[in-house]
Hints:
Elements: E1 4-7, H1 13-22, E2 24-27, H2 33-39, E3 45-48, H3 55-60, E4 66-69, H4 79-84, E5 88-90, H5 97-112, H6 115-123, H7 133-139, E6 151-155, H8 159-172, E7 175-179, H9 185-190, E8 194-195, H10 199-205, E9 208-211, H11 225-228, E10 236-239, H12 248-256, E11 262-265, E12 285-287, H13 296-314, H14 328-331
Parallel strand pairs: 1-2, 1-3, 3-4, 4-5, 6-7, 6-9, 7-8, 9-10, 10-11, 11-12
Amino acid sequence: MTPKILLTEAIHETGINIIKESARLEIAMDPGDETVIKAITDADALIVRSTRVTATMIEAGKQLKVIGRHGIGLDNIDLEAATRYGVAVVNTPEANVLSVVEHVLATMLYLCKRIVEVDNALRMGEFDQPGSLPGLVTKLGYITQELYGKTLGLIGFGKIARKTAEVCIKGFNMKVCGYDAFLAPELIKQAGVEPCGTLEEVFGKSDFISVHVPLTPGTRNLVGKKQLDLMKPTAYLINPSRGGVVNEEHLYNALKNKSIAGASVDVFEKEPPNKDNPLFALENIVVTPHIAAMTDGALVRMARDVSEGVISVLRRERPQNLVNPEVWERLK
């Protein structure tokens, strides 16, 4: 019988076409728990983007053999339950690396060049006075920063952080330091990055700090008041990883009090965030809707890689990006 693959949300047609060549495709009416539980009962595979996959869903999938994560992070999947029920989990760890790196660089430049501030000032007529524009920039206090020679601090040193370091070192002659609780300092040093012994060391010495860790019980609220208080008043925080890693209340206070220069946040503790999220009222923060990986190229690669990984499992071929290899012997 042709296997059934259930999607909680549509993915790029590249992935859809791969699925249709080997399986029956069903896209859920909505990604809600009740709808997914009903649709998963006869599914051989489930592909999700950021939809939460619970133990109840996995248990309801009596024929379920594999869950595909359209992306890198696994915090929305009950990995322990999947492993317990013998369900393989695959993801796409390479697919959106370049897109997230570009997002980090774009927001670094946006912040240090004060784009939103000077755009608003010019539109509101603040520069409509005698003098040259360069002279008025100095007079009105709109001097900006260079990336050249500044220090970038990386929290976590996985694929995205490594590529970010490479581009910043080669492209902007930046100094880069990093901290990863699970990586030997020698491996960080091999990438031309200064290893830091503690998280706090990174926060104290960096001009820009970019967070690149998954959301786990150990990383929830990893960045809070203690770390933010160590930052230079001219420094910026960038979080393209997961919202729960940075304490939003503490970040709000640091930004409101201007104890740090600014921040860029692409992810939130609650997603979608409420429209009255306090961060939205601040002028020294760039907020984006979990968009770092949502580029044309990344969407194609994620759809392709997750579909190929799921099909491989259904064919009893070991997939390239198997997250829980301990289930493989039970699936062969």
